[in-house]
Amino acid sequence: MGDVILQLDGIAKRFDETDALRGISLDVERGEFITFLGPSGCGKTTMLRIISGLEHPDRGRVILQGQDVTDTEPNQRNVHTVFQNYALFPHMNVAANIGYSLKLQGVKKQEIRERVEAMLELVQLPGFAKRTPQKLSGGQRQRVAIARALIDNPDLLLLDEPLGALDLQLRRQMQTELKRLQKRLGITFLYITHDQEEAMNMSDRIVVMNEGTFEQIGTPAEIYERPATSFAAQFIGTANIFHGRVEQLQGDAAQILTDEQMILAERAEGLAPQEPVTVAVRGEKIRLHRQPQPGFTLAGVVREHHYSGGILRMIIGVPGSGGEQEVVASHQGMESAFQVGDAVYLDWEPAAGILVDRKGARRNGEKA
Amino acid sequence: MEKRRRHDGSFFLAMLPLYVTTLVFVLLPVLYVVALSFMKRDATWGVTSEFTLENYIRLWDPIYLKVLLDSLKIAVKTTLLALAIGYPFAYCMAKLPPRKRGIVMVLVIVPFWTNALVRIYGWMILLRANGVVNTLLLEIGIVDVPLKLLYTDGAVLLGMVYSLLPFMILPSYTSIEKMDWSLVEAARDLGAGKMRAFLTVTLRLTLPGILSGCVLVFVPSMGLFFISDLLGGGKEVLMGNLIQNQILTARNWPFGAALSVVMMLMTLLFLFVYRKSTKQSQPEGMA
C-alpha cells in the first residue's frame, strides 16, 4: 500500500426516504487520478460533498492525511472543488476569483498577484486577470474555476462533472489538458463523470458507482477486461449478458446452458456444476460464422447493422424462451459480410465469457 | 443594452397616453411647486406672481436648519434600524421552505390592506400611559409607575420603522431569493468561514436589494408627518410636519413650496448616490 491521502470508511447518507450512499469505503493514494463513474443519482455528487465537508455523513468516517475530518467544516479542510456550474463569483474579476483563497489566508497583495499570474499561465489564460466571469466563454470559465481551486495547493482536488457543459471537441481537449496538469502538479484528483469515455481516458483508477454503492474499483483496463458485475460490464463499453446454469466443466472452459442454447465461459475458481451464473461477453470478442462450428455456437439472425466511425455494429436476434434476445457484435471495418435477415452462428473464446455478479465475489467497498 | 427604438409617428402615438399622464400628473405639479417657491405670499391666502428668493433665504434660519437636520437624523435612524431588522428577516424568509415562505410573505403584506393612519392609532392605544403595554408591565410588577412611552422620540422612531419595514424586507428578500447559494458553498470550500463567506459573497451580491430597500425607506421617512404628529405629540417638527403646517395652517404656500423643493432635491441627491453605488458595485477588481 502506498501513501494513502484519503480514506473513506463506511460512509452512509440518507436524504428523506432515499439512501444516497450505502456504506462505501475507499483508500485513495497520493497523486492518483481517480474517477467516479455512474449514472445520475448514483450518489457521486453526495460523496464528493461529504469529502469537501459541504455535507456530513450519517455514518462512517472521512480520514484526510491520517486525520479524521468527518465533523470539520469545509474551510478546515485543505480540499477544493471545481463545481459543475463553476460557481465563479460574479462580483469579482478573474484575478480576484483565483486569488480568493489566498486573500482569505492573508497572503500579501503582491504575492497574490504573482501567484495568480502564474496560475493564469498554467491554465493558458494569460492577460485575463481583469475580465469579469460574465465575459468568459464556458471553456475559459472552466479554466478559471480550476485555477481558483488549485492556487493554494490543496491535498485533494474534487471535480464534479467539470466538463459536462462543454461541447465534445472542447471536452476532449480539456481532458488531455486536465490530465497533463494533474501529472505535472502531482495533486490527487477525484473526478466525477457519467461519461465512460472520459473516465477511460483520464483515470488511474475508476470507481463504478450504482445506487449508492461501489460496483467495482479498478484500472480502466481491469474494469473493461474483467468487469465484476453486469452493471459494470454494461456501463463501460457494451456487453452482452447471458443468464444460465453451469452444465459441465472441461479444461479451462465452462459450458453454460442458457434457456435454449449452450454457450462457453471462463472456468472461474470454485465454479461448480448446476451453479446459476451470469456471463458477460464484449461485442468485439464475438466471432460470426456462416456455418455452425465444432463445439458450441449460438444461432441467430442478423437484424440490423450500422456503421459508426470505423466500427461496424451488428444486432443479432437470438431465440430465447422469453422472446428474442438481442446480441450486439462489433467489428473493425466498414462492410459486413452479412445481410439483414441472414442466419448467423456466434462463438467466442471461453475466456471472453466473463462470469459476473458471482455470489461471494468481492464487491468492492461494500459493507453490511 | 437595447438600442433605442426609432421614434416614428406610430410609436409616438402609442406612447401618447404615457406622455400625457406624466405631463399632467408629474411634471406640471412639480413645476407648479417650483414656480410657487419663487413667489411672494399674498396678504390674504393666495400668492402674487412676483419673483423673489426670500423663501429660500428664510430657509437658512437656524430654526428651519434644525428641522432639516432632525428630519435627516430620524430618516437615517429609521433606515438603519429597518435594515438591521429587515435584512435578517428577509434572509431567514428566503431560507424557509417554499410553503412557509408564502405564509410569511402574506404576513408581511397584510398590513398594507389597512389604512396607515389606523395602524398608527393602534400603536397609540398600545403605548399610552394607561395603554396595553403599561397595563401589562404594571400587572407583572416590572414597573410601579406607568412608563412614558407615547409622545417620545422613541415612539416616533418605532412608528417610522414599523410603517416602512416592508419596504426594506421586500427588495432585500427579492435579491436574497435570487442568490446562487452554490457561490457561498464555493467560498466555504475555498476556505472561508461562515461569516467571511457571508460578508464576501452573500452581502456583496444582495447589495442592490439592500440599497433599494434603503432608498424606499429613507425617502418617505423624510415626509411622513402624521407619525411624528400622532406618536411624537407634534413636539418634534420634521420636514413633513413643517410643510404640512406651512401649507395648511400658516397658509404660506410659497414657503411650503420652497421646503418641498429642498426635500425633492435631497431625495434626488440620495437617488443619485444610490445609482452611483449600484453601478460601482458590479465587478469588484483586485488592486
From TrEMBL, chain A:
<keyword id="KW-0472">Membrane</keyword>
<keyword id="KW-0067">ATP-binding</keyword>
<keyword id="KW-0813">Transport</keyword>
<keyword id="KW-0547">Nucleotide-binding</keyword>
<feature type="domain" description="ABC transporter">
    <location>
        <begin position="6"/>
        <end position="236"/>
    </location>
</feature>
<keyword id="KW-1003">Cell membrane</keyword>
<dbReference type="InterPro" id="IPR008995">
    <property type="entry name" value="Mo/tungstate-bd_C_term_dom"/>
</dbReference>
<dbReference type="InterPro" id="IPR017871">
    <property type="entry name" value="ABC_transporter-like_CS"/>
</dbReference>
<protein>
    <recommendedName>
        <fullName>Spermidine/putrescine import ATP-binding protein PotA</fullName>
        <ecNumber>7.6.2.11</ecNumber>
    </recommendedName>
</protein>
<comment type="function">
    <text>Part of the ABC transporter complex PotABCD involved in spermidine/putrescine import. Responsible for energy coupling to the transport system.</text>
</comment>
<dbReference type="InterPro" id="IPR050093">
    <property type="entry name" value="ABC_SmlMolc_Importer"/>
</dbReference>
<dbReference type="GO" id="GO:0016887">
    <property type="term" value="F:ATP hydrolysis activity"/>
</dbReference>
<dbReference type="Pfam" id="PF08402">
    <property type="entry name" value="TOBE_2"/>
</dbReference>
<comment type="similarity">
    <text>Belongs to the ABC transporter superfamily. Spermidine/putrescine importer (TC 3.A.1.11.1) family.</text>
</comment>
<keyword id="KW-1278">Translocase</keyword>
<comment type="subunit">
    <text>The complex is composed of two ATP-binding proteins (PotA), two transmembrane proteins (PotB and PotC) and a solute-binding protein (PotD).</text>
</comment>
<dbReference type="GO" id="GO:0043190">
    <property type="term" value="C:ATP-binding cassette (ABC) transporter complex"/>
</dbReference>
<dbReference type="InterPro" id="IPR027417">
    <property type="entry name" value="P-loop_NTPase"/>
</dbReference>
<dbReference type="GO" id="GO:0005524">
    <property type="term" value="F:ATP binding"/>
</dbReference>
<dbReference type="Pfam" id="PF00005">
    <property type="entry name" value="ABC_tran"/>
</dbReference>
<dbReference type="InterPro" id="IPR003593">
    <property type="entry name" value="AAA+_ATPase"/>
</dbReference>
<dbReference type="InterPro" id="IPR003439">
    <property type="entry name" value="ABC_transporter-like_ATP-bd"/>
</dbReference>
Automatic annotation (TrEMBL), chain B:
<keyword id="KW-0813">Transport</keyword>
<keyword id="KW-0472">Membrane</keyword>
<feature type="transmembrane region" description="Helical">
    <location>
        <begin position="149"/>
        <end position="170"/>
    </location>
</feature>
<feature type="transmembrane region" description="Helical">
    <location>
        <begin position="255"/>
        <end position="274"/>
    </location>
</feature>
<feature type="transmembrane region" description="Helical">
    <location>
        <begin position="205"/>
        <end position="227"/>
    </location>
</feature>
<keyword id="KW-0812">Transmembrane</keyword>
<keyword id="KW-1133">Transmembrane helix</keyword>
<feature type="transmembrane region" description="Helical">
    <location>
        <begin position="74"/>
        <end position="94"/>
    </location>
</feature>
<feature type="domain" description="ABC transmembrane type-1">
    <location>
        <begin position="68"/>
        <end position="274"/>
    </location>
</feature>
<comment type="similarity">
    <text>Belongs to the binding-protein-dependent transport system permease family. CysTW subfamily.</text>
</comment>
<feature type="transmembrane region" description="Helical">
    <location>
        <begin position="106"/>
        <end position="129"/>
    </location>
</feature>
<dbReference type="InterPro" id="IPR035906">
    <property type="entry name" value="MetI-like_sf"/>
</dbReference>
<dbReference type="Pfam" id="PF00528">
    <property type="entry name" value="BPD_transp_1"/>
</dbReference>
<feature type="transmembrane region" description="Helical">
    <location>
        <begin position="12"/>
        <end position="35"/>
    </location>
</feature>
<dbReference type="InterPro" id="IPR000515">
    <property type="entry name" value="MetI-like"/>
</dbReference>
<dbReference type="GO" id="GO:0055085">
    <property type="term" value="P:transmembrane transport"/>
</dbReference>
<dbReference type="GO" id="GO:0005886">
    <property type="term" value="C:plasma membrane"/>
</dbReference>
<protein>
    <submittedName>
        <fullName>ABC transporter permease subunit</fullName>
    </submittedName>
</protein>
<keyword id="KW-1003">Cell membrane</keyword>
